[in-house]
């Protein structure tokens, strides 16, 4: 019999998962910029570079979902946690544990980026922090974050919140969605989608080169935009899919995420075996009663 997952296990899983996301996924941004700077102006940032960054972020998020999904649900994103709490799939008290773990993990991940690229490079190219594109207003950036988070959580709702979704495909679908959004929607706000992804690099940059980070943007657009968009996306999916917003039972979910989505085919097979055993036992009882 499997032991129940403790709050500390959830906390550590989300902390490590978010740290890895920031270190590897967001770390691919300054890693790319360092290469471009070292070329002495011979290379320019292109859509191919953006695509490689998008792939890196998507892959590492998929890895987090599949490796940590059976422990914490593999949120590694306050927007996902918030949407789960709003739709009553996750208790608010437990959501607070996720939020704290994710923010601490993001800072650790950002420190890791600094250690890998070095202080001189970090002062020059940054740590992958979110900033508005030149000429972008707060309204435009806020709208971009709301819409992008809406799209992400609408799709997450279909492949991770709904038990009718094909088992085991959730992480891959999320990875493809994030890849597509980074390629297509990154321009106005540099696309956060995830306040933890923004928070860690922003805090560490205060000690590296504060001129490259605007905290007003961080604690307005990049905080509230993804949260609002995520809640709207999840609620909209529930509405059109006909799902009732009721509290989920721990037996059916992991961190609010459907077990079949994060535990994959194995969970489905296990459920099928249990169903077969129950059916067989029922048939045996019927046979015994007929014999009597």
Q: Provide the CATH top-level class.
A: Mainly Alpha
Inertia-based shape = globular
Q: Order of strands across the biggest sheet? A: 1-2
Helix/strand-derived category reads mainly alpha
Number of helices: 13
Sheet with the most strands, sense and barrel status: 2 strands, antiparallel
Number of strands: 2
Task: Write the CATH homologous superfamily.
Answer: Glycerol uptake facilitator protein
Weakly predicted, low-confidence segments = 265-276
Helix content: over 70%
Our count of domains comes out at 1
What is the level-2 CATH architecture name? Up-down Bundle
Distance between the termini: 35 Å
Order of helices and strands: HHHHHHHHHHHEEHH
Polypeptide structure, described:
- The protein is 71% helix and 1% strand.
- The chain contains 13 helices and 2 strands, in the order H-H-H-H-H-H-H-H-H-H-H-E-E-H-H.
- The chain has one domain: Glycerol uptake facilitator protein (Up-down Bundle).
- The protein is mostly helical.
- About 4% of the residues have low confidence.
- It has a two-stranded antiparallel sheet.
- Strand 1 and strand 2 form a beta hairpin.
Q: What's the arrangement of secondary structure elements?
A:
Blueprint (H helix, E strand, L loop, with lengths): L6 H20 L1 H11 L8 H22 L9 H9 L5 H26 L1 H7 L12 H24 L8 H16 L9 H14 L6 H4 L2 H21 L11 E2 L2 E2 H4 L1 H28 L1
Antiparallel strand pairs: 1-2
Helix pairs in contact: 1-3, 1-5, 1-9, 3-8, 4-5, 4-7, 4-11, 5-9, 7-8, 7-11
């Amino acid at each position: 019999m499997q032991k129940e997952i403790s709050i500390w296990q959830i906390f550590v899983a989300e902390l490590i998962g978010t740290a890895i996301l920031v270190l590897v996924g967001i770390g691919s941004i300054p890693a790319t910029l360092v290469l471009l700077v070292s070329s002495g102006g011979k290379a320019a940032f292109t859509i191919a570079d953006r695509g490689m960054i998008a792939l890196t972020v998507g892959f590492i998020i998929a890895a987090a979902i599949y490796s940590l999904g059976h422990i914490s649900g593999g949120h590694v994103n306050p927007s996902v946690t918030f949407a789960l709490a709003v739709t009553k799939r996750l208790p608010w008290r437990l959501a607070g544990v996720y939020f704290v773990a994710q923010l601490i993990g993001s800072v650790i991940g950002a420190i890791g980026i600094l250690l890998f690229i070095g202080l001189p490079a970090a002062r020059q190219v940054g740590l992958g922090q979110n900033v508005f594109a030149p000429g972008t207003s707060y309204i435009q950036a806020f709208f971009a974050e709301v819409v992008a988070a809406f799209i992400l959580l609408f799709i997450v709702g279909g492949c991770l919140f709904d038990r009718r979704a094909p088992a085991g495909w959730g992480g891959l679908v999320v990875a493809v969605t994030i890849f597509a959004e980074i390629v297509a929607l990154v321009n106005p706000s540099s696309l956060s989608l995830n306040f933890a992804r923004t928070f860690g690099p922003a805090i560490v940059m205060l000690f590296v080169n504060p001129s490259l980070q605007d905290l007003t943007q961080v604690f307005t657009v990049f905080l509230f935009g993804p949260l609002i968009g995520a809640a709207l996306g999840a609620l909209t999916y529930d509405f059109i899919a006909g799902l009732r917003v009721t509290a989920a039972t721990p037996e059916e979910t992991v961190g609010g995420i459907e077990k079949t989505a994060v535990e994959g085919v194995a969970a489905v097979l296990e459920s099928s075996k249990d169903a077969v055993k129950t059916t067989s036992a029922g048939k045996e009882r019927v046979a015994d009663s007929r014999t009597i």
